[in-house]
Amino acid sequence: MVWSIFQQRRPRRPPRADQMTNRPSPKVQQLMAVLNGYLLPTGAVLLLLLFWVKSQAVNLTQHNRYVDALRQLQELDARINQNLLQLRLGLLDYYDPIISEQAAIRELHQVLETPPDFVGATHQELQEQVQQNIQLWQEKDGLIQQFKSKNAILGNSLAYFPIAVTELTQQPDIPPDLATELDALLQTVLLFNLSASEELTSQVETNLEQLRSQASNSDAANEILANPLIHADLILENRLETDNLVETLLAIPTRQQGIELAETYDMAYQRAIRSANLYRLGLYAISTVFVITIAASIITKLRAATTALQQSETQLRHIFDNTQVGLFRTRLDDGTVIAANQYFATMLGYDALDDVVGVKQSTDLYADIQDRQKVLKTVLRTGKVRNFETQFRKQDGSLCWVLFSCQMNKAEDCLDKVVTDISDRKQAEAALRESEATKQALFQAIPDFMLRMYRHDSVFDVISPGKGIFFTDPNLKRANAEDFLPPVLMEHRLQAVQQALDTGEVQIYEQQLERLGHQVWEEVRIVPSGTDDVLVMIRDICDRKQAEAELKRATEAAQVANRAKSQFLSNMSHELRTPLNIILGFTQLMSRDRSLNTQQQSYLDSINQSGEHLLDLINDVLEMSKIEAGKISLNPGDFDLHSLLKGIHAMFQFKANSKGVDLRLEQASDLPQYVHTDESKLRQILVNLVGNAVKFTASGHICLRAAATATVDQPTDASIPPSTFMLQFEVEDTGAGIDADEIDTLFEPFVQAKTQQLSQAGTGLGLPISRKFAEMMGGEMTASSHLGQGSVFRFSIQAEPTQDAVLVRSQPDRPIIGLEPGQPTYRILIVEDVPENRRLLVDLLKPIGFELREAQNGQEALDIWQQWQPHLIWMDLRMPVMDGYEATKRIKAVGKQAPIVIVLTGSVFKQEQTLAAEAGCDGCVSKPFRTDAIFAKMAEFLGVRYTYGEPNMPATSVDGGSSAIASKPLTAQDLQIMPSEWIAQLNQAATRVDSQAVTDLIQEIPPDHGALASHLTQLVENFGFEEIVTLTKR
Amino acid sequence: MRRFLNDRQTFRQFYLVGLVLFAILVALVWQQVQSPNTLPLRTAETPAFDAVNEPIQPLPEAIAVADDKFALGETLFNDVRLSKSRQVSCASCHNLQMGGVDRQPHSPGVDGAMTAVNTPTVFNVAYNFRFNWNGKFSSLVEHTDALMQNPRVMGSEWPDVLSTLDTVSDYHQAFTAVYEDGITRTNVIDAIVAYETALITPNSRFDRYLQGDQTALSPTEQEGYGLFKAYGCVSCHQGVNVGGNMFQKFGVVGDYFADRGNVTEADFGRFNVTQDEADRYVFRVPSLRNVAVTPPYFHDGTADTLEQAIEIMVKYQLGRPIPSEHVQQIAQFLQTLTGEHQEETLTAMRR
Question: A102 and A138: one domain?
């Protein structure tokens, strides 16, 4: 039972892992339940019963009776002894008291023979002692009987003897001595009777003897004496015997034995009492434990019940407080709110429940009293109201829509109410209505025919009939598309629907069909709107089609015009540049010759300058055209800004000085040296601006300023890296200035300021081009001027920092003329299959002092390399027998000992460069190359130190335009590598002056003919279509 | 019921409650069983008498016995079916009309066998400390039981007696009314004993005299009482029953039996019981109440008259001469010891 209490309290725990295998079977469990539930309580109760019985062992009645009997035994014993003495002394004259006492003792013995049960082990001993006692008493009884008899006899004799003797002694004829003796005998006997000492006893006997002897002597005496003598004998005998008897009787240890018996019993009793007490104690203890256990279990159950109740209460309270609906209760009679939950208060804008409960009445809540009446009527009739929409007044007086339900609670004489705020829903409803209205309006407004179609179904639902005439019945709601579309279009429509549903993307296509007798063009848009349905919008696009056709015509016309323009420019470019190239080219070549004298050199300079100028003009025009055609692209690269600025400064120094104008260069102290942007364009701009300044300043100074600032704003163009900064340039002069109203038109092409017109220089394209370049590089250009005072031209470009310090400080004005002494003889291998190109390099490098070898293909290169061990190899890529890649690979395969391989790539395409890098080249230079680049690379990789000559060489023009030095002219044969159809197409495209087509065709050139591609590209960029036509002519 | 049992919770609760009740019940019963371990009460308490300052004490008015038991005992006492021969009842020898004796020297028992000794009176037996002349029986129960089975008296065997009684529906009724266990040996004896115990004869003239009524005795009777005392008769015939409470040798002075002759075994008296030589010729001192109406006297029934008895007693017990006037006076005194039964003084006359 105890266990079961604990089991009831404790929730069933899942068995531990180690007990899993030993989980008792249901049968055993059942058995254990029985054990706990029934056997234990039964056992406990029986135990209690046993203890109780044992504690009751000492039957007090029995005990008292026994103790009483023992006591009475002693009493009676004493009384009997007393009686005996009384009898002995003659104070008692009848024996009834003794008889009754003896009878009582016999009864007591019967009692004592059955001791109480609780004596237990001492029962045997007690019985023995009781028997002993009985025995003693039987002995005593016997003696008492004897005593009684003898006492009676003694008494009688004692009474008579004196009378007898007196009678005798008073007889006259009695012999006197006899009488005397009788008297003496009487005395003695009487004395003897009083105290039977031995002395007296013997005396009596003596006397008796004497008398007896006398009696025997004579018959007369005998007759007289006979009677008294008998009595005397009787007295003697009985006196002694009764005395003995009394002594013996008193000596019988009935009292002691009785005491022993009492003690034995008492011990047994004490023991029994003790044991009973122990049992009682045990009983109490167990009872207490039981009571406590029961109490504990009751308390636990109560507590559990209370907890459960509390939990339930808390749960309900929680629900009431936290539920997301307003619960409140109003009194039936006056509508006072008597209970509410927080949500209700909050819903109606009250801060605390106390503001509502007991304060507000339902009349305060309803916006419309009529509603309240309605509610009351319904609830009184039916007992409840369900989902009644009404408006409640909030704390601030505003109204809110609520959904209201109410239940009559007769038991507590109130109404239980639930409200939820349906403002959102109302809003949604209103919005829906509005949206619906908008939709309808939209449908009305949209002229398209809108219908809904389903996957694999040609039946459609009309959503809006649109403004067009699509079918005869304007009220048609549902129809089958097959009735309206020809099979092909139907098929297409279904496929499009399928596609729309599958991809989730809007499908748009056009269809042409006959509707109601008209040929119509329609655009069909299919928008997936569900998992299986789409919205189909059909729009009449006849107008659009018309417009498109017209546009097409216009575009074609424009294109034709454009092509004409390009053709013209191409002619221009080709016709003008061809001779110009020759002039400039050979002039430059000649000017390298040190054997010319000064005057010849100056002649060459003049020729060169003029040619350059002419070239500039042409280039500018082409640039402008390219810019307008959008063909200009940025070529950002790393370069030395400081060097560039110095070069510009140096370039115009002479001219400025010769005019007496001070040309200053001011660059900011934090101006980065190495920057990454389009160097050539920047140079162009600077040349243009500074050139202009020099041209138009007669006196004073020209100041070129350069500074770098961080980009003020975050670049909005995501393609611009965040580390970009702005380079700010300024060219200030104290020249003639520009008229205010002419500033605006400065940047217009072909517009020259008046001052410009006075001088001959300039194409009129410089500033527009510069500005366009600045804008292309993420900056802008502005001009300000005061007429007669000077002008300031400012521009800014974006640039990125670069760490590359690999750029050699080339000194553009000072040509390299040789090697510094003290260096080893550098062995350079030139691998190039085209002899002219090879010669170019040879002619360039040999005068400087390099030891040169040539190879025509990769294989030769390998042979020479193995034998000769060059320091550096200039490797062309496209060669027969073995191309540059392979050769580079092989050479580089030896590892660290391989010579430097620099690849000469003719293609502008990055692909070639990448492949070359993969092959293992150390660097590459693109063809046509700058001589500077050649020298720079060799310096970079070999550490060559050059000696420089005097700076009188004009800067070699570097942009990929006109120089024919670095590259030999393209021949028709070069094109033969391409299929004849391609050549024919190229011819056609070039004839058409279709630069796009030509570019596309160039793309088709395989990568290992990069030179061809780049040549052709150059031609295209420079409008050399005539050349292309020539090259591709059959 | 099944559903009730199936509801284990409720069943268990009921079980527990039942268990507790059962335990309480057992405890109560046990206690009941335990308590009265008393002896079977005596059928009648012998009340103490109001003692007077004389060697002889008066009888109390009555000994309380339940009426129904008394009646049953009376019926049994007079029922000849208690004897083997169906001829003899207790009353055959202990005739209440004849002073509780049959006034024969010896009495015929069943089969006509004569008792060895004279039948003593059934009256006032409550105050005898022993029964029979040799004092063999200490209680009436023993006495009744023994005499029932004595072949010379009732000669019965209890099973027969009981079965005989069993056949009588009146006994059934009476026994079951008085005793729970009906007709049993113990109960039969108990009824008879109860009846005998109640047979006391109070209000004798001498008792009245003892209780203060001086006129109850005539002067001669008073003198006779004086002589009774002076001679020493009272030393043995004393107490409430005027004797019956001690043993004494018959022939203290002189040899009675030698002088009488024809000594039989019965004459050995108490010796037959104790085998003690000292007890030879020792007898229970008889009660002298109603002595006037219960001749013949002595165990052998040899004295027919009071005077004869007195003379023998004085001679052999007292050993002194006595003049005949004194004998007469004592005899007259002895007449006054006759009490009442059912408010009628017992008579010497045969009815």
Answer: yes
